[in-house]
């Protein structure tokens, strides 16, 4: 049976662009246990770039834990959900580069993307804010 993992990811910038970071949790889809928490400091970037970094690092950790897992990614960014689902074009070169990295990482694995209200993504947001406060990555 394929293991189910959930990645909750977010990103933010203080200014747009400004000091930026992403955050992510990896959660066991069956038990709800948090398996990993991480923050990725990006430096000066836009909010969207930071969100992509949070998602990318969350996926990397999920596949490190179980390379064959089915992953469900939850984001409060409709832009990322629509772009990664292939419904919206990615016009910005920085986002195109990050989306390519995500797609290469995913390969032929089973991944789904879901938009969630911001309030439901508070844990990932807090991890992104912690990385911005520290101006450093953690948990990677």
Automatic annotation (TrEMBL):
RNase H type-1 domain residues: 1-133
Lineage top rank: taxon: Bacteria
Single GO molecular function: RNA-DNA hybrid ribonuclease activity
Keywords of the record: Nucleotidyltransferase, RNA-directed DNA polymerase, Transferase
Signal peptide residue numbers: none
Family matches, as PANTHER family: POLYNUCLEOTIDYL TRANSFERASE, RIBONUCLEASE H-LIKE SUPERFAMILY PROTEIN, RIBONUCLEASE HI
The protein's name in its UniProt record: Reverse transcriptase-like protein
Gene source species: Agromyces tardus
